[in-house]
Design brief:
Blueprint: H1 2-28, E1 51-54, H2 56-60, E2 67-68, H3 81-84, E3 89-90, E4 100-101, E5 131-134, E6 138-146, E7 150-162, E8 165-177, E9 188-202, E10 208-222, E11 251-269, E12 272-290, E13 318-338, E14 341-356, E15 363-379, E16 382-392, E17 395-403, E18 407-416, H4 420-423, E19 424-426, E20 431-433, E21 439-448, E22 450-451, E23 455-467, E24 469-472, E25 478-481, E26 485-498, E27 502-510, E28 512-514, E29 526-538, E30 543-554, E31 561-563, E32 568-570, E33 582-591, E34 594-601, E35 614-616, E36 619-620, E37 625-634
Antiparallel strand pairs: 1-2, 1-5, 3-4, 6-7, 6-37, 7-8, 8-9, 9-10, 10-11, 11-12, 12-13, 13-14, 14-15, 15-16, 16-17, 17-18, 18-21, 19-20, 21-23, 22-23, 23-26, 24-25, 26-27, 26-28, 27-29, 29-30, 30-33, 31-32, 33-34, 34-37, 35-36
Keywords: Signal
Protein name: Putative porin
InterPro entries: Porin_10
Length: 636
């Protein structure tokens, strides 16, 4: 935090005179696209439309799109990472806990990855940073105070050093108290501290552009292992929340991530650029448990300890697992536009390793890729795209996309490596050394776009075929199934507007999984989200308000359970996470640029046949409680 404040102060000190110079230049430029942002007293009017942001992907694809800051209210009450996906992730029922996607996703990276993905949602990867084009210093503060001391704070600051050079810093933190059996006010389940720094620059003639970012996350979790089942301890009950009996009290996990990222390009000729991307990533995953305490009852009885008990990771009464993943990447390529056609070709080299205190030698890898892309664009409504990547000699990913005014269709075919954690792992509780085949997938997705005056309908369909799927089985170790799985997932997204101010937004999916590997995918058969809300101005249009009710529902299924020692979700056949509709009431409102939320969780608690609900075996969902949040923008 001290380093964040120091950088913030330096930028303020250095940037003030430069800002004044830049503002004068903007005012004097009659051809400036933002010349109209002057009020009647010829002063610059700063706001969300003078602080625009863009992503690296749009630069690389020669489709630079600058986006205004988000001041909308829709979905603002879903401030947690899982809720922001509209609950398409399964977590451990608390802010910042381990999470996995409910629906199968085709990996973007077909090469070697760490396999420790439980906390991906809470890390802002360097290649997904927002880069800004701002005409004034811009600060955003967003503070969320969840019931039960589930708190989240985001602070961002960006400014222009020169008209063609912007910088930014951000600090993000989570402090979430245990929802199950906290012993004191600050008995935290999750403590997260993250920060990022980024800059973007382009030459005055527009031929050279640079984007660079650094991100770091330290995610600390005091693991609980879930509620002890009543069949194990007759005095243990599931829906007592603060009084629940949990498995773990002296176990903790840490996920430390650090990334350096650089993208730069140069225009050699009109319509032809060369570019280079550099990445350096590090992930350190640790798990500690005091086996001299009651925590030992949660784990398997066998232990893998060295005879040399002087080693901290080999003491018989302690688990101290550590895995270190690091990777370097360099990509060089060329790209350009030939009329309405965009083209790209590149060569990419990756090297890295997975290290462990228990390994006798590191698990290293080197990978070489060839790739490219092609896009044709008649206009913004008619587009086709094709991209492909070949991992020499036995991996690939190709994707085609067609966009039209009434239909979007995509096809993806991939052959990707199992994770390094699935291939080789050594810890106090589990060890394996596997030689799995690559996983193959074919995916077809289609969406029909039907827009009417007050109705928007999006019928959609996803079809997956997956073979050689690798997963963590009921014994909590990796396994690969040679049979295929076939998924057919029809869905519908809809938005209705009644009387101009009453909105009803919904999405629903039905999942059918067949084939020899069908049982290895635990996806709810029915998945539904819906919200109904009033949306409109009040008090002479000084306040914009959304007041409504949100409902989510998943049909019952044997959802994967979670093993803290390996930080992996695994299959289980004993605990049915039964169907249960969860209703939340919310009030979002905006005064000028300040947004405020109130959300009352689990509004229907006490009115159902069951006393509550589960999101993961052994982890009960939130009881009824009130959340508060506020977000400010400052532009001077």
């Amino acid at each position: 935090m001290r380093s964040f404040l120091a950088v913030y102060t330096v930028l303020l000190m250095l940037g003030s005179p430069l800002l004044a110079q830049q503002t004068t230049t903007e005012d004097e430029d009659e051809s400036s696209p933002r010349r109209g942002l002057l009020d009647d007293s010829t002063k610059m009017v700063y706001g969300p439309n003078t602080s625009l942001y863009f992503y690296e992907k749009s630069v690389r694809n020669n489709r630079l799109q600058k986006i205004e800051l988000d001041t909308s209210l829709t979905g603002f009450h879903n401030y947690e990472a899982v809720a922001d996906t509209w609950y398409k992730y399964q977590d451990l029922a608390n802010l910042g806990t381990a999470a996995r996607p409910i629906f199968y996703e085709v990996p973007r990276q077909i090469g070697s990855v760490s396999g420790f993905n439980a906390y991906d949602l809470y890390h802002n990867a360097a290649d997904s940073i927002r880069y800004y084009d701002t005409k004034s210093p811009h600060t955003k503060i967003a503070a969320f105070f969840g019931g039960g001391n589930r708190n989240k704070l985001d602070v961002e600051f960006v400014r222009n050093i020169k008209p063609n050079w912007n910088v930014g810093i951000a600090y993000r933190t989570i402090r979430a108290r245990k929802t199950l059996n906290p012993t004191r006010r600050d008995d935290n389940n999750v403590v997260n501290d993250s920060y990022e720094m980024h800059t973007n620059y382009h030459s005055e003639n527009g031929k050279y552009r640079l984007l660079a970012a650094f991100t770091r996350m330290k995610h600390n979790v005091n693991e609980q292992g879930g509620i002890i089942p009543p069949e194990v301890d007759t005095t243990s009950l599931y829906f007592t929340y603060e009084d629940s009996k949990v498995w773990l009290r002296n176990s903790r996990a840490v996920d430390l991530r650090q990334e350096y990222h650089l993208y730069h390009e140069y225009q050699l000729l009109k319509g032809w650029q060369v570019y280079h991307i550099f990445d350096k990533k590090k992930q350190e995953v640790t798990f500690f448990s005091n086996l001299g305490s009651s925590d030992a009852a949660f784990f398997n009885e066998n232990r893998f300890n060295s005879s040399d008990t002087t080693l901290v990771h080999s003491k018989t009464d302690t688990t101290n697992n550590h895995n270190h993943f690091s990777v370097w990447k360099n990509e060089v390529g060329f790209k350009g536009d030939f009329g309405p056609v965009y083209y790209n070709a590149y060569l990419k080299f990756r090297s890295g390793r997975m290290a462990s205190r228990f390994f006798t030698s590191n698990n290293t890898f080197t990978e070489l890729y060839l790739g490219g892309a092609l896009r044709g664009e008649i206009n913004e409504n008619w587009v086709f795209e094709a991209e492909g990547e070949y991992l020499i000699p036995n991996g690939y990913r190709v994707k085609g996309l067609f966009i039209s005014p009434i239909l979007d269709v995509s096809y993806t075919k991939a052959l990707y490596k199992p994770s390094l954690a699935q291939e080789r792992y050594m810890g106090n509780h589990y060890r394996w050394d596997n030689d799995f085949a690559n996983t193959g997938v074919d995916q077809v997705q289609g969406t029909i776009k039907a827009d009417f005056t007050h109705i928007k309908l999006r019928p959609n369909l996803t079809i997956n075929r997956i073979n050689n799927y690798t997963f963590y089985n009921e014994e909590q170790v990796p396994e690969q199934v040679s049979e295929e799985a076939f998924m057919v997932i029809p869905g519908l997204s809809a938005h209705f507007v009644f009387a101009r101010k009453i909105n009803w937004q919904s999405e629903a999916y039905y999942t059918l999984v067949t084939g020899g590997a069908a049982e290895k995918f635990r996806i709810p058969e029915i998945f539904v989200n819906s919200r109904v809300f009033f949306d409109g101005p009040l008090f002479d249009e000084n306040v914009y308000v959304q007041l409504g009710l949100e409902l989510r529902y998943r049909s019952d299924n044997y959802s994967p359970a979670y093993m803290p020692a390996t930080q992996q979700f695994y299959l289980q056949n004993d605990f049915n996470v039964y169907a249960y509709p969860v209703a939340d009431a919310f009030l979002n409102f905006r005064i000028n640029r300040t947004r405020v939320l109130f959300r009352y969780n689990h509004l229907n608690a006490g009115f159902m046949e069951n006393d509550g609900y589960f999101v993961t075996p052994g982890y009960t969902g939130l009881k009824n409680m009130l959340d508060l949040g506020i977000s400010w923008y400052f532009f001077d």
